[in-house]
Structures are given as C-alpha cells and as structure tokens.
Amino acid sequence: MPEKVCILPSSELTTVFGKIGRQASYIVCEDLKPGKIVLGCMPALFSNVREDVDFITQYPVITLEGHPMHHAAKLVKKYSQVISAEIDIENLLKEADIEVSDSSPEKLGPNGEKAVKFLAEYTAKAVDKLLTRPGLERSNF
Amino acid sequence: MKKIAIMPCNGVGRVVSTITRESAYKIHSLRPNATILISSPDLAADNPETLLNAKKYPLIVIDGCKPRCGSNIVKAKGIKPILEIYAPLVCANKKIPLSGETRVKLGLNGAWLAEAITGIAVQAIDDLLSNKIPVIQKNLPFEIYMDNEEILSRL
C-alpha cells in the first residue's frame, strides 16, 4: 500500500473551479490527511522540478481539474504516469447540486466555501481508498 | 485597446505562490481594461486562447520561487516576457518578513509583499501604455528586456 498520495490541483487563475480545487487541496493536505499527502505543483511539474516529478512517479496521483481541458491530468500523462483519480470539479459540484455563482476566481462566497469543503471531503475519501488498497504498487497506480 | 498580459507563477506549494497570484489579481483590478490575466496551467497545457493571448500581448511574469516556473513556461512556449518580477527579490529589498504567513490565506505581511509587487507592475504597465520603456526602481535587479521596438510594436 502506498504511504502517501499526491494531489495535483490544476489551480487555474481565471476559473472559480481552479480556486476551489486549490483551497480544497490545502484542506486535505493540512487538516484532513496530514502527513499522508504530497501536494504537486503544476508549474513546477512543467518545469521538471525534481521534487514534483518524484511526487507523481512515487505516489498515486489524484488530479483536481478546474478546467474542462483537464490540464493537470494532461501534464501527468506527459510523464507517462497513470492517474488514480481525475476529479472534474465543475461536474462533481453539478452532481452534488452545489452552485457557486456567488464566488469568483479571486474570492469565495458562502457557496464557494461549501464547495471547497465538499470537494475536500470527497478527495479525502478518494485518498483513503488509495491508501488502503492492497497490492497497489508503483507499477499499477 | 492596448493591453498588457500578466502571468503569476500561480503555484500551490509555497506562500510566495499565493502572493504572486494575489498580486496578479490586484494588478488586474487596478488596471482592468489594460490588462489580461494569463493562467500558467492553461499556458502549460497549450490552451489555444491562452497561448494566443500570451503571444499577442506584451507579457509580465511574476515568479514566486527559485525554479522560476512562470518564466520557464513562457520561454518553453517561445514567448519572450517584457518583464520578469522575482518575488523573493522584492521581499528582500523591502525587508518583508514572511514567517507565519500561510499559503492558504495571506496575512498582513503577505499582503504587503503582494502590494509591493503590484506597485512595480502597475508602474511598468503605465509606462508601457504611455509608449515608454518601463522605469523600474533602480535598486531592484529585475530582468527587464529592453527591446524597445519589439515591446512597443506589440502594444
């Protein structure tokens, strides 16, 4: 079983879902699953920063996608790595009937905060599944 | 309408990443009609619209930490920024302590550094839009590209 999981938020600057994904990833990393998460950084991964490349090669990866083009997953695939969970934030919130029109990429309103909490808990559950999956080896993340 | 593109590194791992992002939003709020924000993940992933805007407009990059990922991304896309602002240099120059600041939400000193970066960028934008080469504070060793003709031709 893996010791940790890598969360890679796409962290778009210009979509509210980018902000929701980023804030949710901080909550999972610091509050819900401390010590069990490595937080991947897309710009650093693009720049081949060793630490971030190691994150996606050594641990199962969950991407939090804030844009329909799924930028984070696209980048992970460039490194020929498999993604364990690819979460489309907009679709997930739609399914959960959480609308975030009170929020912007810069500032979250109450619904945006609710969306962050929901996404963080949803992601934490996905992390738990990966951390407890027997036989999950590097080769088959 | 003349526009300047602004791209912060927009990373997630460090406090300075949050500061570059906040700076970009502040710059855009101060000069909403003269600036356009470029999202580094969009550019890294070759979003066609983002790529077009980054190439079309003079681009200011705000880097947060040593790997200078923002600058790396634009250069990998064949784009030459007109100005690279390196947040740690501004931090050191202004002697702003960042201990106690968190990446989740900026406190007073994080906001102070974001304001300092914003001030530098807005001055450069105003200079550029007046068809002047930006006058950057002399004691800050930023990389600035002084290719006057190229910069002005893109306005």
Question: Which structural class best describes the helix and strand composition of chain B?
Answer: alpha/beta
The helix/strand series of chain A, from N terminus to C terminus, equals EHEHHEHEHH
Broad shape of chain B: globular
Largest sheet strand order of chain B: 2-1-3-4-5
Enumerate the spans of chain B where pLDDT stays under 50 for 5 or more consecutive residues: none
Structure class of chain A: alpha/beta
Mean pLDDT of chain B: 86
Number of strands of chain A: 4
Polypeptide structure, described:
The complex is a heterodimer of chains A (141) and B (155). Chain A is of the alpha/beta class and 141 residues long. Chain A has one domain. Chain A is 48% helix and 12% strand. Chain A has helices at residues 16-32, 42-46, 50-58, 71-78, 89-95, 110-131; strands at residues 5-9, 37-39, 61-65, 85-88. A 4-stranded parallel beta sheet of chain A has the order 2-1-3-4, with helices on both faces. In chain A, helix 1 (16-32) packs across helix 6. Chain B is α/β, with parallel strands linked by helices. Chain B has a single domain (4-153), classed as Rossmann fold, CATH 3.40.50. Helices cover 48% and strands 12% of the residues of chain B. Chain B has 7 helices and 5 strands. Chain B has helices at 15-30, 40-44, 48-56, 69-76, 87-94, 108-129, 148-153, and strands at residues 4-8, 35-37, 59-63, 83-86, 143-144. A 5-stranded mixed beta sheet of chain B has the order 2-1-3-4-5, sandwiched between helices. In chain B, helix 1 crosses helix 6 (108-129). Chain B is globular. The N and C termini of chain B lie close together (9 Å). The interface between A and B is medium-sized, with 30 and 28 residues.
